[in-house]
Amino acid sequence: MTRHHPDSLTLMEYSAGNLSEARALCIRLHLDQCPHCRSRVDTLDSLGAVMMDHQPTVSVDDGSFEQLMARIDAGPEMASPVAYKPRQNPLQKLLGQDINDLPWKRQLGDVSVLDITAKFGDRSEQVVLQKLSAGGKAPAHTHRGDETTIILQGAFSDQNGVFNQWDFVCLDHNDEHRPVAVGHEDCITLSVLSAPLKLTGTFTRFLNPFIR
């Protein structure tokens, strides 16, 4: 069961179609496995349809919007009323093969990467698959911009807790961490970055000029 979810504002942007293709893919992968967030998106989709139908007469002030977001956030976690059958994994369809069979490239220590930015139309963001070997540690780092991550396989832990398969993570320049793969399998993630990460370790920070 997923424990880390997109916030209401992110789900609202997804519902409205305002996210980039890569960030929307991260949300989609999470929704396919999380009935709680699917229910929230269904609510937002229904609200959006009502507001479009009554656009000339309906106005929503800031207070109403905040109350709505609070109600959605406080809503009970429940399964969708209709049995949900996930469609074909959109990432596997995009890649054409299993994530474990990809041509991974060793980056630093226990970390291997595969840049798939070219598969998306928006080149202003970097889209990268990252594999942290079972039991391995990633270099300590922070972020120069925003990073959206979905865990595709395995799990990792940092100072914020344990993140399991299909958990959703958003980080920015305020976050500094060193993920550690937990369990007996490699931890594979899909990340969308608005700017390169910044290594903060005593020695690895000298590699920053070479990190894209």
From TrEMBL:
Under Pfam families, the record lists: Cupin_7
Q: Which domain of life is it from?
A: Bacteria
Q: Which InterPro entries match?
A: Anti-sigma_ChrR, Anti_sigma_zinc_sf, ChrR-like_cupin_dom, RmlC-like_jellyroll, RmlC_Cupin_sf
- Gene3D superfamilies, alphabetized: Anti-sigma factor, zinc-finger domain, Jelly Rolls
- The protein, known as: Putative transcriptional regulator
Domain ChrR-like cupin, residue spans: 98-190
Q: Which NCBIfam families match?
A: anti_sig_ChrR (TIGR02451)
